[in-house]
Amino acid sequence: MNLLAIETATEACSVALIHGDELIARSEIAPRRHTELVLPMADMLLAEAGIGRHALDAIAVGRGPGAFTGVRLGVSLAQGMALALNVPVITISSLAALALEAPEEDDSAILAVIDARMGEIYVACYRRDDNGGLVALDEERICTAETLVLPDTDAWQVVGSGWATYGTVLSQRLTGTLRSADGMRYPQAAHVAELAMREFRAGRAQAAELALPVYLRDKVALTLVEQGKA
Length: 230
Prior knowledge:
Elements: E1 2-7, E2 12-19, E3 22-29, H1 34-49, E4 58-62, H2 68-85, E5 89-92, H3 94-99, E6 109-117, E7 120-128, E8 134-136, E9 141-143, E10 155-159, H4 161-173, E11 177-182, H5 189-201, H6 224-229
Parallel strand pairs: 1-4, 4-5, 6-10, 10-11
Antiparallel strand pairs: 1-2, 2-3, 6-7, 7-8, 7-9
């Protein structure tokens, strides 16, 4: 099985390749440079594995939410490659991929939170399952930190740029003990690849033209100022 994964929804530009039993990845924090980095990263991984693009069995992509331009780039690239290679696409929530950046503690809930700019956050809650995957505790959504309502649980781990921006407010919204918090974590293609393999084996890959981005925010036509901050 050869699966290429792309994640460009936030400041982190990353690509990962599952080649048999091996997972290799490249990632760089590079705001506004995703377009120039993502395809060379992919070619580098394929060269490292000693395979060409036509050896790929599927393409996975972080479908958002995140920065509009980054989400659009990742999904467009995945669709284009999948159509050219006649392979399916697996779309993965960027918040779910972010949640796997949390330390592996089975009994903690995970709050994945991305700074959505304009005073809002993208957020969803998860718990690890017995097989290293994730169980969603609620739906992914956009809201303000002040209005965030969380499920009741005894312990939390928080990951994502939303904590770096709104940590003080978010800490007051938690319904249990805060065990860890890291505002410098971003969704990574390696986790997109891991989650995508589960979806692929479950028969949930889809045709390229059905792979859609998830923005959550109705306002996707950002001003130039907003694009510069995204």
